[in-house]
Amino acid sequence: MSFDRKPKVEMVDDVPPTSRSTPKPAESKSYSEVDALYVALPLLSKFLPYSFQSLSLRPVRASEQTKFNRAHKEGMLRHLVDGVSATLEPGVSAYSLTSSDFYFVMYWLRVNSYTKVPYQHHTLCEDPKHVARVMSDDPKEALPPESLEIKMLVTSSSLTQRELDAATLEKFYLPDAIGSRYPLGFATMADVVTITEKEDQIEASVAEAAAAGDTSRDAEGEFEEWAWLADRASYLTQGDNGERDLESRIRLVQTMSPDDIQELEDYIQAATNYGVDEYVTVRCEECGAEKRTKVSISALSFLPSARGGDSS
To answer: How many CB atoms neighbour CB 224 within 10 A?
Structure first.
């Protein structure tokens, strides 16, 4: 598909970070039909994870750019999600989007908002002869490791899009399948933000304990254990007490058997098998070899900050 372009427009109010999307009746109009400054974007999830069946958005303005700059400077994903939320139609929060749909929205925002700001892609040359020269012990033939580095400004690329296939999820809701025992759902950006911020919280708690004389705790180990549970719990819609918060959902995961966990992981694989991939052809300046490579993007650098966005 191609992205339709629309002119930049006035900013709407931010959706509060904790809010969820407001359900819209299936028969209601797309917001782009109500406000011509917005564009309807068909999400690759086909709206299966949501109570709404259409989504409209507009290009970025400086008011959102300041949030992207802050996200890049502070390394805080929350600020990025706040900025993206402000570009969506009223009543829909970027926190309620799945990560795949969120990245798809960011691609649209980049294409339609940053026409004069290319971003830099980093990769390594894999040409066998070049690699052999880097590994060579012959000082006359050897090349420095940094000669393998390829940096280029991406001005053109190709996108591969995969839509969510609802049929692949049906087996998980059959009698005796995991969906009959646990409330399956989709991880949202609210979950992603919670998980990324938890690491800092654990590090602060461990540092405070160490300052008080308790050096037995390991911040990295504690976070890895918590994150393993949280990653799986984010695909449940509610927890052990019926609450939706992530800690409640984690407690429900903790009660699962190994077989339950395996079924849940199979479901997660099917529920995340969609999204957008970007590919670009690069050329090594040292040896001239070319290759087609997938662009790996970071949420904090994909949309340009004041210094521009990078990918690696």
So the answer is: 12
